[in-house]
Amino acid sequence: MPKPFQSLLKIPPVLAPERTLLDSAGRKVSYYRIRQTPGLAGVVPRFMTPVLGYNGIFPGPTVSVEQGTRISLRMDNLLPLVHPQYGHVLNTSTHLHGSASLPQFDGYASDLTPKGLCKDYEYPNFQPARTLWYHDHAVHKTAWNVYSGLAAQYHLHDPVERALLPQGRFDVPLTVSDAMFAADGSLSFNDNSHSGLWGDVILVNGSPWPVLKVQRRVYRFRVLNASISRSYRFALSTNDPVTVVATDGGLMPASQQVSAWRHASAERYEILVDFSKYPAGTRIELRNQSNKNNVDYDFTNRVMAFDVTDEPVNTADHTWKTIPTVLASSTTMDLKPAQAKKTRTMRVQRDNGRWTIAGTTWEEVIRSKYQKVVADPDLNDVEIWQVENHSGGWFHPVHIHLVDFQILSRNGKPPFPYERGPKDVVYVGEGETVRLLMKFEHHRGKYMMHCHNLPHEDHDMMAQFSVGLKIGDVDPNDPITAAPAHPEPD
Ligand code: C2O
Ligand code: CU
Ligand code: CU
């Protein structure tokens, strides 16, 4: 069992493109390549932990890209045929969570790349700056594959965010996850009859309860909850507030000071912490106050620590002491409920021993030969989706692909201050009803929506909707057939 605060925070390597070219329309395209392979991670003292990783590491390499540069990413499945511990066949599908990608590049669960093949994913990167992440989305195996290590951050930059917020080494990814270890140091998996996996070890960027040495200045942290089930209520040990500046879909209209925030799987919050007010030598912890229906252990209330140093601060960089209040408007946050053509109501619930969403499961979508949809907005339609959780026993982080949405309300009240920005995952807590406002723009085709508690998703809380398609239309962006996996060209 590792002990808290024994190792330093590791920053995943930033992936370099193999080349950058101009396409026929004169646009920049960067070509990347990632190999999905087994690897060994040093997490538990004296043992090596087998993982499956993008380039063999967990978290995988960070992709960092400027708005307007397109990416073509070749993803090679070089994993063993079957999972060495859990025994399922390792077909993969890669989703770039937070990107309005075409359906055939969106990691559709049933669009699988088998061992030995590769798939070329195209990412447009035209959206506002944001923290995205890429992770496995293989049908009915997502929880196992993400837990085994197939997850990483992806940063989309733009000039607005570059000018406002700390950059470089002061812009720090924090990928938080939880795990449980067997006596031999391997990852054990127990999802409690598909309700959730609750690890007793908290990892940040793959290290247990790490420490980051910080200068006496403002830092930006991109906090991603990559736990497959656990939600957190993060807070600083000083009880000082942090400043939330961005949500899943990027900058908020205005920053928000909060002393704690509820953070479910797949949500991203970017926060600023001003360490200049603490004397060198101070240790500040990031803690987890937890939420209802999580299983907690002795040290799951701790996450990581920041040790304030006296390393000199470069005060020529204005972000060293800037906490901006006005950030950026966005088409999502400018939407008005009156623009909505339709309101749809969807329930998340347990039904005959299965998790269902909007009255369906992915098994039913498969049985319909991928025709069944739970909503069919036209291209550019604005809609309100009301998501209801009538249970007191479960919370469900609901994720809708393709769109960014605005949270209008939760149980008739305004959303929490830290949620007042563009989102693609919403925490639908016990007994909660949320209303979401969104515009179905950019692409026609079929997209998934699901619970991001991954054992729920796999069993079988996932549905799909179509944008701009009529029954019987030929779909040029069919998510399974439009850009299939193929052998590596020589
Ligand atoms: Cu982060 Cu459909 O997933
Ligand atoms: Cu997504
Ligand atoms: Cu759920």
Task: Describe the overall structure.
The chain is mainly beta. The chain has three domains: 19-157, Immunoglobulin-like (Sandwich), CATH 2.60.40; 164-320, Cupredoxins -  blue copper proteins (Immunoglobulin-like, Sandwich), CATH 2.60.40.420; 331-467, Cupredoxins -  blue copper proteins (Immunoglobulin-like), CATH 2.60.40.420. The strands form six sheets. Strands 10, 11, 12, 13, 15, 17, 18 and 20 form an eight-stranded mixed sheet that branches. Helix content is 6%, strand content 39%. The structure holds CU-O-CU linkage and copper (II) ion (CU) (2 copies). CU-O-CU linkage (C2O) is lined by residues 95, 97, 135, 137, 266, 399, 401, 448, 450, 452. CU-O-CU linkage is lined by residues 95, 97, 135, 137, 266, 399, 401, 448, 450, 452.
Annotate the secondary structure layout.
Blueprint: E1 19-22, E2 28-41, E3 49-54, E4 63-66, E5 70-77, E6 94-97, E7 117-123, E8 130-136, H1 142-147, E9 151-157, H2 159-164, E10 171-181, E11 187-188, E12 201-204, E13 207-208, E14 211-214, E15 218-225, E16 232-236, E17 242-247, E18 250-258, E19 261-263, E20 268-274, E21 283-288, E22 302-308, H3 331-334, E23 342-351, E24 354-357, H4 362-367, E25 382-388, E26 396-400, E27 405-410, E28 425-428, E29 433-439, E30 445-451, H5 454-458, E31 462-467, E32 486-487
Parallel strand pairs: 2-5, 4-9, 10-15, 14-22, 23-25
Antiparallel strand pairs: 1-2, 2-3, 5-7, 6-8, 7-32, 8-9, 10-11, 10-12, 12-13, 15-20, 16-19, 16-21, 17-18, 17-20, 21-22, 23-24, 25-29, 26-28, 26-30, 27-29, 30-31
One copper (II) ion is lined by residues 355, 396, 451, 453, 456, 461.
